[in-house]
Design brief:
This protein is of the alpha/beta class. It folds into 2 domains: 5-224, Rossmann fold (3-Layer(aba) Sandwich); 245-344, no CATH class. 29% of the residues lie in helices and 11% in strands. It has an 8-stranded mixed β-sheet, sandwiched between helices. It has a two-stranded antiparallel sheet with strand order 9-10. Strand 2, helix 4 and strand 3 form a beta-alpha-beta unit. The longest helix is centred in the first third of the chain and has 18 residues, at 23-40. The protein is globular, with a radius of gyration of 22 Å. It catalyses: FMN + ATP + H(+) = FAD + diphosphate.
C-alpha cells in the first residue's frame, strides 16, 4: 500500500510544532529539507536510500516535506531516489528496500557491483532502475577494478552514472549523522568534492543521536529492516556486518539478580564478541562471562524480558542448561533500539 504524502506531512510537521522532546530536531531537519528544495527545486532533489535506520527516518521526513508542497495530483508522482548497493548485501535488507520503494513510491535508481567482486575491491557498479517494483537494466561497459579503494571511488562512479541518467537532479538528501565516520566534518548543505559529479549534499539529521533515530521510528510506527530486531545496529555488507556484541545476551548463574548499577565495571565489546565465538563449546563459562548479561544491561535503555526471544514471559532464560553455564543454542541479541551507548553503534562492523 502506498503511503499518502499529505498524511505524513500532517504527522511530521505537527510533531515538529508540538511539545515532544524530539520536536526541535524534527523541525530542524524539515527546515534543512525545505531549504534544499527551495535551492534546487522541488523536482530536482533525490534521496540516497540504502534501507538503513537513518535513511529510513530521512525518507519519512522527505515524504512529509513533499506532501506539504505538492498538490494532491502531484503527490502521485514518484520520489527520486538512489540506492548504491554494497557487494553481498543482506537479502532481507534488499527485501525491505523493495517494500519501502513501493510504499513511498520511489523512483529508485539501483547501482550494484557484480556479485563476484568482494568487498575489498571497489568496481564500476552496474546499474538498474527500479520503478514501482519493476527492474530496468541499463546496458553498461564491463565493470573495471579500481585497485584498493575502499568505497570512495565506487561511490563517485555510482553518482556519475546517476548524474548521466538524471541530469536535472542537483541535490541529494543523505542520512549522515555526526557520529558516523567523517560525520564531524559535514554541514547541513555542502557540494560534492572536486572531480565528483556536481550535487548539493543535504544532511538534515546530522545532529540526531542514535537514540533520537530509534525514538522517531518507534514513536511513529515506521517500518524498518528487521535485521535491527536481531541485534544489528549498523548495516553494511555480509562480509563486515555482525550483530552488535554489546547487545549479546549470555546465561547468568542467577537470572533473578538485578542488573549492576552505573558504578559497575563494563564488559567491552571485544569480551562480548569472544563469548559469541565460543557459543558451541560445552565447558562451563568463566564467572566473568556468566555475569555478562548483568553488565551489558548498562548499554541498554530498558530490560523488558518480553522483547527478547531468549527469555520467557517470567523473565527467566529459556535455556534448560543455564545453571550449568553452557550454551546449547545460537546466541541471542537484544534489538538495536535497546543499545544505550551511541559510541557502540558500530561495534558490530568489522
Amino acid at each position: 500500500m502506498t503511503i499518502r504524502l499529505q498524511t505524513v506531512a500532517e504527522q511530521v510537521y505537527g510533531l515538529a510544532t508540538s511539545n515532544d522532546p524530539l520536536a526541535p530536531l524534527i523541525k530542524e531537519a524539515l527546515d534543512v529539507i525545505d531549504e534544499g528544495l527551495d535551492a534546487c527545486g522541488v523536482n530536482n532533489v533525490s534521496i540516497s536510500f540504502n534501507g538503513g535506520k537513518d535513511c529510513t527516518v530521512l525518507l519519512h521526513l522527505f515524504a512529509g516535506a513533499l506532501g506539504r508542497r505538492r498538490s494532491e495530483a502531484e503527490c502521485s508522482s514518484p520520489i527520486p531516489a538512489i540506492y548504491i548497493a554494497v557487494p553481498s548485501s543482506f537479502p532481507v535488507l534488499e527485501e525491505f528496500i523493495q517494500d519501502a520503494a513501493e510504499a513511498y513510491n520511489l523512483d529508485l535508481f539501483n547501482c550494484r557491483p557484480p556479485q563476484e567482486d568482494t568487498i575489498e575491491t571497489v568496481v564500476t557498479p552496474a546499474a538498474s532502475k527500479i520503478t514501482r517494483g519493476t527492474d530496468y537494466i541499463h546496458p553498461l561497459p564491463r565493470p573495471k577494478g579500481v585497485g584498493k579503494a575502499k568505497g570512495g571511488e565506487g561511490m563517485r562512479q555510482a553518482l556519475e552514472l546517476y548524474k548521466n541518467e538524471f541530469p536535472d537532479i542537483s541535490g541529494i538528501l543523505i542520512g549522515t549523522r555526526r557520529t558516523d565516520p567523517h560525520g564531524n566534518k559535514i554541514s547541513f548543505r555542502c557540494p560534492t568534492d572536486e572531480g565528483w559529479p556536481e550535487f548539493d549534499r543535504v544532511n538534515p539529521i546530522i545532529n540526531w543521536s542514535y537514540a533520537n533515530v530509534w525514538t522517531f521510528l518507534r514513536q511513529l510506527n515506521i517500518p524498518y529492516c528487521k535485521l535491527y530486531d536481531e541485534g544489528y545496529t549498523s548495516l553494511g555488507s555480509t562480509y563486515n556486518t555482525f550483530p552488535n556484541p554489546a547487545l549479546l545476551v549470555t546465561p547468568s548463574t542467577n537470572p533473578d539478580e538485578p542488573p549492576l548499577d552505573s558504578t559497575s565495571s563494563i564488559v567491552s565489546p571485544a569480551t562480548a564478541l569472544k563469548t559469541v565465538m565460543s557459543t558451541t563449546h560445552s565447558e562451563p563459562q568463566t564467572p566473568d562471562t556468566l555475569s555478562a548479561t548483568k553488565v551489558l544491561s548498562k548499554y541498554m535503555t530498558n530490560t523488558h524480558a518480553d522483547s527478547l526471544t531468549a527469555f520467557g514471559t517470567d523473565g527467566k532464560p529459556n535455556r534448560q542448561d543455564v545453571n550449568s553455564g553452557t550454551f546449547t543454542s545460537a546466541p541471542q541479541y537484544w534489538p538495536a533500539y535497546m543499545l544505550k551507548d551511541d559510541h557502540l553503534e558500530r561495534a558490530g562492523r568489522d
